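Supplementary notes for students who missed Thursday's class. We covered one full example, reproduced here. Read the sequence, then the structure, then the short commentary at the end.
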Amino acid sequence: DAPRKGLASLKARIGRDAAILKGQELLELLGGAASINKEKARALGRALESEGLGIEPDLLHGAKAPKPDDTVVVFALGSGEKSSEPVPSYQAAMLTVQLASAVAHADGEFNEREVDHLQDQIRAWTHLTPSHIRRLLAHLRLLVVQPVSLTSLKKKLEPLPVAAKETIATFMATVAQSDGVMTADEVKILEKVYKTLGIDPKKVFTDVHTVATGSKPLPTTAATNEFLTAARG
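Structure (token representation):
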């Protein structure tokens, strides 16, 4: 009875949206132990899915079991929906959002305008399925609390074609200015992003100026298709 009540409470809290919890809080709600192994983490992911809920990190597709202090995001799936496979188009979009979160955190605050900007962009990516968009929005909530480092993303960026890297780099410039302020710290992190992407860091100032004058080039399906071509090759 206790786990059922905990699950009912969680579902009421989420509604059609999402909830941010610590790993320990989630396990306690469901009557579990303070820590779980990878096998039990997958079982947790399946149990949540059977109740119309998804979880980030994606426990059903290789994410590590959450530790008590780790942050997790539990979100509502669509009606009758199963957790989507992390196909290359989704992985490319997730990588873009992870990079954007690193830029947004550069000034020490991932503020509401930056989050709104990224949420709007995610919803506008027509190459993603509704299921992938829901998961990516949940992943963004996780990144607000728990950003990834540029170093950890470097290997994932290597397969990207130059054109895709340039498109993503320019998008980073729009994220940095989405709150209306461009700080020295944000310029520095943009330079690191460009360098990580293999693009001349001096191009930061050109792209920042372009965005400031009203031009907002964004990652498109073309950039994603180039990523897919590289991944398949």
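Commentary. The radius of gyration is 19 Å. Residues 28 and 34 are 7 Å apart (CA to CA). If anything here is unclear, bring it to office hours.
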